[in-house]
Amino acid sequence: MSMQGTASSGVALWRLVADGIERGIADGRFAAGDKLPGEMEIAETYRVNRHTVRRALAALAERGLVRAERGSGTYVEAQKLAYPLRSRT
Predict the structure, then answer these.
(1) Residue 66, SS3?
(2) CA–CA distance, 5 with 86 (Å, rounded to integer)
(3) Where are the domains of the chain?
(4) Are the beta carbons of 53 and 43 closer than 8 angstroms?
(5) Of 11, 6, 13, which is closest to residue 55 (Cα–Cα)?
(6) Which of 5, 20, 25, 50 is the most exposed place for a label (fewest CB within 10 A)?
(7) pTM of the model
């Protein structure tokens, strides 16, 4: 998968990588609890450097889509349900 530069698309490379991984989660390629490919493998897939991948994964972690476990890898988080608590609940 080739990534186009930021000058031609106006979107940062890390955002394109994050969007690609997010699409993979949304369409079921990566299920909750699945381990994502390593940083180097993702970098080769998107033809970017490892730091770009790390920035993309950090953005996904901030949004609660993935979690990084030191020494183990990055895993897809389970989707959280919005369930408001009211007085009758």
Answers:
(1) strand
(2) 48
(3) 6-76
(4) yes
(5) 13
(6) 5
(7) 0.79
| DSSP-assigned beta bridge partners for residue 66 | 76
Fold of the domain spanning 6-76: Arc Repressor Mutant, subunit A (1.10.10)
Q: Over its length of 89 residues, how does the chain's per-residue pLDDT go in tens digits?
A: 555 555 466 789 999 999 999 999 999 999 999 999 999 999 999 999 999 999 999 999 999 999 999 999 999 999 776 667 777 75
Q: For residue 45, what are the contacts with CB-CB under 8 A and spacing of at least 6?
A: 1, 37
Neighbours of 61 (CB within 10 A): 14
